[in-house]
TrEMBL record:
Quaternary structure and interacting proteins, as annotated: F-type ATPases have 2 components, F(1) - the catalytic core - and F(0) - the membrane proton channel. F(1) has five subunits: alpha(3), beta(3), gamma(1), delta(1), epsilon(1). F(0) has three main subunits: a(1), b(2) and c(10-14). The alpha and beta chains form an alternating ring which encloses part of the gamma chain. F(1) is attached to F(0) by a central stalk formed by the gamma and epsilon chains, while a peripheral stalk is formed by the delta and b chains.
Family of this protein: Belongs to the ATPase B chain family.
Species assigned in the record: uncultured Actinomycetospora sp
Keywords: ATP synthesis, Cell membrane, CF(0), Hydrogen ion transport, Hydrolase, Ion transport, Membrane, Transmembrane, Transmembrane helix, Transport
Residue ranges crossing the lipid bilayer per the database entry: 20-40
Pfam families (alphabetical): ATP-synt_B (PF00430)
Topology class, membrane: Single-pass membrane protein
Region of interest: Disordered: 121-144, 177-230
Name listed for the protein in its UniProt record: ATP synthase subunit b
């Protein structure tokens, strides 16, 4: 309802009967002024202080959040760099391990070949030494047997021809038996190299012994015959 309607409804003779009294208005103004003073003097500073504190806390929280976000981004970047470095390091380690494995395999193959060559060379040296010893032993034994045969032939030539032939045949049999056994051992260790050498040397020694015996037999007989009259 407007002021005009209120004035129209008022009875005649009292045009401002519905309006408050001046004293009430003054008292209300004074009370409101006191209330405003008290609020401004005591409540408002606390409110401003609380508002400022809240504002500062909010701003501090925002700053901390921004700092944490920046740290998180920096940490994320560092982690990505580390992951990239780890991937590179892993690839390098894998390549190094592969290269080491290949190098070790090559070294093992080379050492195996060298060891095999060394063993083969050592075996060849041993076979050659064994063949040389066997040939030397055969030659020495053949020479000894030849000398023995020559001695027997000389002795037999002093007795009779039949005993000489028996001695020669018996000694040839012994030489054949000895040559067969020794040649078989030499063939097992030298691959047949000593067989021809031993046999050839034995035959040569035997032939030489026979020649020497043939030459020395008559000479000895004639010498003894010539010496008998004297």
């Amino acid at each position: 309802m407007s002021v005009t309607e209120l004035l129209a409804e008022q009875p005649a003779g009292h045009p401002y009967a519905t309006l408050p009294h001046v004293a009430e208005i003054i008292v209300g103004l004074v009370a409101f002024s006191l209330l405003v003073y008290v609020v401004y003097r005591y409540a408002w500073p606390n409110f401003v202080t609380s508002h400022d504190d809240t504002k500062k806390q909010i701003e501090s929280g925002i700053a901390k959040a921004e700092a944490m976000e920046a740290d998180a981004k920096a940490q994320l970047a560092r982690n990505r760099e580390r992951l990239a470095g780890v991937d590179g390091e892993t690839a390098r380690i894998r390549d190094d391990a592969r290269a080491d494995a290949e190098r070790i395999g090559q070294d093992m193959d080379r050492r195996a070949r060298e060891e095999a060559d060394r063993v083969v060379a050592q075996g060849r040296q041993q076979v050659e030494a064994s063949r040389s010893r066997t040939v030397s032993d055969l030659r020495a034994e053949t020479g000894r047997r030849s000398v023995e045969l020559a001695r027997r032939i000389v002795e037999a030539s002093l007795s009779d021809e039949s005993s000489k032939a028996a001695s020669v045949d018996r000694f040839l049999d012994e030489l054949d038996a000895m040559g067969g056994a020794d040649t078989g051992g030499a063939n097992g260790s030298t691959g047949g190299s000593a067989d021809g050498s031993g046999d050839g040397s034995g035959r040569a020694g035997t032939s030489a012994a026979f020649g020497a015996a043939g030459r020395s037999g008559p000479s000895t007989t004639s010498t003894q015959g010539n010496g008998a009259p004297s």
